[in-house]
Amino acid sequence: MTTGTFFLFLLALVEVTASSKNDAANREKREAVLIRSKRRWVLSTVDLEENKPGPYPFELTQMFNDKKSDNSVKFRLKGDGVTREPLGLFSIDENTGIVSVHKAIDREVNPIFHVDFDVLDRKTGKEMDKTLSFDVAIKDVNDNRPEFTPETFRVPVPENTPEGILQATLTAHDNDQPNSPNSQFTMRVVSQEPALPKISLKDLPDTTKIKQLALSGCFDYDKAKTYKLLVEAKDQGTPAMSSTATIFLDIKDTNTHAPEFNSNQYNIEVMEMESNKEILRIGVTDKDTPNTPASRAVFSILKGNEDGNYKIETDPKTNEGVLSLIKGKDFEKTASIELEIAVENEEKLFQCVNGKALPGSTPKPNSVKVAVKVNDVNDPPEFKKTTEVIYRNENGPPGDVLFVPVVKDEDSNSKNIRYELVQDPAKWVSVDPKTGKITTVQTLDRESPFVKNGTYTVIVQAIDDGKPPATGTCTVVVFLGDVNDNAPYLTSKSLVMCVNKVDRVNVIPADLDGPPFSKPFTFSLGGVKDLRKLWKLEPTTGASTSLISLKSLPYGNYSVPLKMQDQQALQSEEVLKVVVCECIGGTVCRENGPFSVSLGPAAIGLMCAGLLPLALLLLCFFCNCKDKTFQHIPLQLYDEGHQTLVKYNDEGGGSLFKPETSTSNFGQMKSIIVASAPPVYLDSTTDGFMRTDNGTLRGSAGYTSGSLSYGRSVIMQRNQSMGRWGRESYRSGGSQMSRSYSLARTERKLADQIEKQWRYVEPLNSSQK
Fold first, then answer.
1. Is a pLDDT exceeding 50 seen at residue 74?
2. Secondary structure of 123-176 in the HEC alphabet?
3. Distance CA 487, CA 240 (A)
């Protein structure tokens, strides 16, 4: 306390001296206003040791002022530790200015405090001078030990790790004041289990807080699978503080043991020309961890497989080497052979001997000998050429000799070989069973579906007399040259011309022959000359053409004869059927709606009037004929052109009667309404081709007399035979013609017709009387 007061007193003297010099300068300048300088509060920094033991509170420092002597002022504190967190740390005696500390302070939490103090008028409470401040600096003591992050951890380390830095890093820190002995520390390995190989710590550049583990020697998974290290960090404070971390190194097994064969020698036998067959399984033993790259075997054939007859693979389930024969061996060339097979692991071999890794290249892998004996079997006949190519023109006469094979057999007499056809899909050839000579028995057609890309394939086999018999095959490929034996033809013989869209249709021909016996084609119209007034072809030469209508054509079907020639003038004639119509979407013709007929009130009245007398007649008929037998009466036909015969058979000798068919007056049909009638045309025939004259009738409410032609027939048949109209079509040469018949007429009334048509049948008993 005495030292702080003395220090403040010296600062006050310096300030007074400076103030006197300023007053002298102001007087020399002769200013009009006299400026008086206030006395200043003293600013200072007070040191306080952290975590200082009590008792509390204790005096930290004292504040004073030159106006304090008259007891008219009082002191006040504010700031850190007073009015700001942490609260209740500092206080001041308002009378004496003594500042006290009330509890211990942790520097690592609050390293410095900034405190403000004022002098107030005791009576009014007003500030008598400016607010001044002082700082309380917390002095560090060594109260924190170094800490590892984390304190315990595990690191996987491969067994084949070379000497040097390990992938394991230690990090520590100290919360005491930085760059002071209290926060500076060192690390060391306190203990290691097992002790070998030696593991030490190595500093990283520009830092002492991070260390790396360094290996001297090599690990042996078979001796130790885990290493435990205890590392200490110790600071340089007084007294020194320390902490430890535990590191576990988990050694991961690698390839440190070479695989070894279970046997030193293998002997096997194979049949001559045998192929694609497993012939041997070779087992190995490996001390490394199973099902890892360190133990999985990789086999190879070092010697004896110069021709590529064998291959060896690893069975992933058993780790065995599977030796297979992929290409047959010829007994006449090789009766036995010796293979040398080696084995190693997927992972490179690493060897640690007496704690030191062996330098240099990978050691030579283990190997084993496999003796293979080839057993003789009956060799098949061999054709001199397994594929024979022959050239012929199509349409050649039968009896042409295509091929005579040359065959040899090491194990059989060539005279005992017989020949058979294996493939001859079109049955065009035959084979001599003794000589193998292939001869045509039919004409070869290049356009046949059995010919692919201009070639016809025949397969012949030769069979020897060995036990068992062996077979050799030869493929005969016959290239067929094209001749012009096919005329052009239409790919589509019926087309639709949508007159509401276009006036033409595309005509696409084809020719089964190839160039130069096919396209470009030449097109022309057949038939009579007048046909050219309706149609034309454009272009007349090319791969296709268009049939163009030269005038507006009525809807209907047309037959147009066409002539087509290929490039060599081979001609064909075909008839193209063209449907002329109105299309709806694509080339789909619009369908005509069906006829609908309705009866007016007059027609209904006539029908009722006609049916009433008929009903009365029938009533009388049944009353008179009750309990009487009937006798058949021969039918008499009246007005055959207008009658319909209806026969009724009745059980027990029923009666037979014949109504006379009649038609009503055409004038009485005016009430019949025909709805949705399609367009109709008058057709006529001229000079062997079809032509249609315009003459249309669209939907009407009645019919006019005259010769009307309809494109479709409507037949109305009722028991009263009210009317009939029909349609008759016939074809003459290449054209078509339609005829229609008008409604039949009659002036007879319905009541008269009923009276004339029906005849009464007298009972059989009356006739006998």
1. yes
2. CCCCECCCCEEEEEEEECCCCCCCEECCCEEEEEEECCCCCEEEEEEEEEECCC
3. 115
Distance CA 278, CA 364 (A): 27
φ, ψ dihedrals at 655, nearest 5°: -80, 155
Enter the DSSP assignment of 194.
S
Number of continuous H segments (helices) and E segments (strands) in the chain: 4, 51
SS3 13: helix
How far is 490 from 448, CA to CA, in rounded Å?
A: 19
**How would you label 98-111 residue by residue, b for 16+ Cβ within 10 Å and e otherwise?**
bbebeeebebeebe
Superfamily of domain 147-252: Cadherins (2.60.40.60)
Helix (H) or strand (E) holding 2: helix 2-28
2-139 shares its CATH topology with 260-375: yes
693 backbone dihedrals φ, ψ, rounded to 5° = -90, 145
Q: What is this structure's pTM?
A: 0.44
| Residue 297 to residue 105: CA distance in whole angstroms | 69
Angle at Cα 591 formed by Cα 721 and Cα 583, nearest 5°? 155
* Residue 48: band (very low, low, confident or very high) from pLDDT cuts 50, 70, 90: confident
Provide the CA 764 distance to its chain's centre, in angstroms.
91
Place of tokens 């454009």: 538
Give the angle 14-19-25 at the CA atoms, nearest 5°.
130
Which two structure tokens, joined as six digits, stand for 271?
A: 């049949």
The Cα 34–Cα 29 span in angstroms is: 11
Tokens 């309706």 correspond to what residue? 534
| DSSP-assigned states of every residue in 594-633 | PPEEE--HHHHHHHHHHHHHHHHHHHHHHHHTTT------
Q: Residue 434 in contact with residue 418, Cβ under 8 Å?
A: yes
Quick: pLDDT tens for 556-609.
899 899 989 888 788 888 999 999 998 887 778 887 655 445 566 777 887 888
Asked if 200 and 213 count as a contact pair (C-beta separation under 8 A), the reply is yes
Strongest mean pLDDT among 28-42, 231-245, 376-390, 408-422: 231-245
Class at the top of the CATH hierarchy for domain 489-581: mainly beta
Q: Is 420 helix (H, G, I), strand (E, B) or coil?
A: strand
Residue boundaries of the structural domains of the chain: 2-139, 147-252, 260-375, 382-481, 489-581, 622-756
CA 479 from chain centre, in angstroms, equals 43
Cβ–Cβ < 8 Å for 688, 528: yes
Distance CA 353, CA 358 (A): 7
Q: CA 11 to CA 21: how far, in whole Å?
A: 16
Which run of H or of E encompasses 564?
strand 556-565
Torsion angle of C-alpha atoms 600, 602, 607, 611, degrees rounded to 10: 140
Give the mean pLDDT of 35-58: 70
Other Cβ atoms less than 10 A from the Cβ of 159: the count is: 21
- Tokens of residue 395, six digits: 């349409």
Across the chain, which distance is largest between two alpha carbons, in Å? 187
DSSP 473-518: EEEEEEEEEP-S----EES-SEEEEETTT-SEEEE-EE-SS-TTSS
Looking at CATH, the fold of the domain delimited by 2-139 is given as: Immunoglobulin-like (2.60.40)
DSSP codes joined into one string, 658-696: -PPP----GGGGGG-EEESPPP--EEEEETTEEEEE---
Q: Fold for 382-481, please state it.
A: Immunoglobulin-like (2.60.40)
Tell me if 737 sits within 8 A of 767, measured CB to CB: no
Fold of the domain spanning 260-375: Immunoglobulin-like (2.60.40)
Is residue 83 helix, strand or coil? coil
Closest C-alpha among 11, 12, 116, 24 to residue 66: 12
